[in-house]
Design goal:
Largest sheet: 15 strands, mixed
Order of helices and strands: HHHEEEEEEEEEEHEEEEEHEEEEEHE
Helix content: 10-25%
Shape: elongated
Structural class: alpha+beta
Distance between the termini: 33 Å
Number of helices: 6
Number of strands: 21
Radius of gyration: 21 Å
Strand order of the largest sheet: 1-17-18-19-20-16-15-14-4-5-6-10-9-8-7
Length: about 325
C-alpha cells in the first residue's frame, strides 16, 4: 500500500468521527509509520528475501531458527562496524525564506525537512498554514474544486481552492498556491482554515529573503554510517511527529517522505510483537526488540514512548551490531 493509499484510508476513517480534524501529512505520518511497522513485522515470514540483501554483511541471522528467546533479555554488545562511522556534519536546517506578513492567529512556526525541500508549518486548533520550498514538486494534499492562475512576485502561479475538505468546520476552506521561483525551485503555500484566497496570496507574496531556523533537533545522533546525510527532520510532538532520518544523497534528492535510516519517537507503550519473532535484548539498560527481517529495532523509552529505529534491509543492509550502535547513539530530549 502506498503512502497515498495510507492517507486515503486514514482520511476516510477520520471523516466518520464526530469532530474530525484535517488529516494532513503531519498528522497522519506517525500513524502511517506505525501501521507500516505492524504490517511489515507481521509479514516477517514473507520477508525472507530480505536475508539475501544482507547476507554479505556480518548479520547474526544464520542460526535464527535455532535461537531461543533470552529470559530475561540479554544485554546487547556494542557494535564495531568494519567501516568507521562519522559525526553528523550537515548544516543546521532552516526554511529559506522569511515571512514578511503572517495572518493573525496562526500559532508558532515549526520547520520540517522533507528530503531536499523544507516546510514552514503553522498550526492552531483546526487551522493550518504552511509553505514549502525546494527542488521537489510538492503535493496539494487536498482535492480541489477549482484552479486558476495568479501572480506571485512576478511569477506565474496556480491557485487551487476547495470549499470543503475532510475535517473542515463551518467557514473553513482549502486554498493552495504553487509556483516556480526565479532559481527554478518549487514553492507552495497551503491553507486549511478560515483564511481566504487573498490572505493566502498575501502570505505567499511576502515570503522574502531571509530564513527561519528549524531550532533544536527532535533527536540527536552520535554517529551515522558513512555517506548518509539528513533526509527528514520533524518536531511536532503533540502530533506524534518527532522524527529524524538520514539517507544517501540520491535519496535526499528524490524523496520528500521519510526514507533511509530513521529514528522515530512514538507515543505508544513498548509492546514487542511476539508473532513477528523479535529478538529481545537491552540497549542502554532499556528493554528492546530487534526485528532483523524487516529492519526494525525498538527501544522502550518509558512513559509510554518508544524509540523506533527503522531501515530498508535491501537498500541499507545494516548488521545487528550496526543497528545497535546507531540506537545507542540516539539521544531523545
Amino acid at each position: 500500500m502506498s503512502l497515498e493509499d495510507d492517507l486515503r484510508v486514514t482520511l476516510r476513517d477520520r471523516a466518520a468521527e464526530p469532530v474530525p480534524q484535517p488529516d494532513l501529512w503531519h498528522t497522519v505520518s506517525a500513524g502511517v509509520r506505525r501501521d507500516r511497522r505492524r504490517r511489515a513485522a507481521l509479514a516477517g515470514g514473507a520477508a525472507a528475501v530480505a536475508l539475501a540483501a544482507v547476507a554479505s554483511v556480518p548479520v547474526i541471522l544464520a542460526n535464527r531458527a535455532d535461537r531461543v528467546m533470552p529470559t530475561p533479555p540479554a544485554t546487547a554488545p556494542t557494535g564495531s562496524p568494519a567501516v568507521d562511522w562519522a559525526w553528523p556534519s550537515w548544516p543546521e536546517p532552516a526554511f529559506p525564506r522569511k515571512p514578511g506578513w503572517v495572518p493573525p492567529g496562526v500559532g508558532q512556526p515549526s520547520v520540517t525537512v522533507m528530503g531536499a525541500n523544507v516546510l514552514l508549518h503553522y498550526e492552531r486548533a483546526s487551522s493550518i498554514l504552511e509553505a514549502e520550498i525546494g527542488p521537489l514538486e510538492p503535493e496539494w494534499e487536498t482535492e480541489g474544486e477549482e484552479e486558476h492562475g495568479a501572480d506571485v512576485g512576478g511569477r506565474e502561479a496556480t491557485v487551487r481552492t476547495a470549499s470543503f475538505y475532510d475535517g473542515a468546520r463551518a467557514g473553513e476552506q482549502f486554498v493552495g498556491v504553487r509556483w516556480r521561483t526565479a532559481d527554478g525551485d518549487w514553492a507552495q503555500v497551503r491553507s486549511w482554515g478560515e483564511r481566504d484566497e487573498q490572505e493566502v496570496l498575501k502570505f505567499a507574496r511576502h515570503l522574502s529573503a531571509g530564513s527561519v531556523p528549524a531550532g533544536p533537533a527532535p533527536v540527536t545522533l552520535a554517529v551515522v554510517p558513512p555517506g548518509l546525510n539528513l533526509q527528514h527532520q520533524s518536531a511536532l510532538p503533540d502530533q506524534g511527529g518527532v522524527s529524524l532520518c538520514v539517507a544517501t544523497p540520491e535519496t535526499v534528492a528524490s524523496e520528500r517522505q521519510p526514507s533511509g535510516l530513521c529514528a522515530d519517537v512514538l507515543e505508544e507503550p513498548f509492546d514487542p510483537m511476539e508473532e513477528a519473532g523479535p529478538e529481545l535484548l537491552t540497549i542502554g539498560g532499556r528493554p528492546a526488540a530487534f526485528y532483523p527481517e524487516t529492519g526494525r529495532l525498538e527501544v522502550d523509552r518509558g512513559g509510554g514512548r518508544v524509540l523506533a529505529i527503522s531501515w530498508d534491509p535491501e537498500r541499507l543492509p545494516l548488521s545487528r551490531a550496526e543497528a545497535i550502535r546507531f540506537a545507542e547513539g540516539v539521544t531523545v530530549p
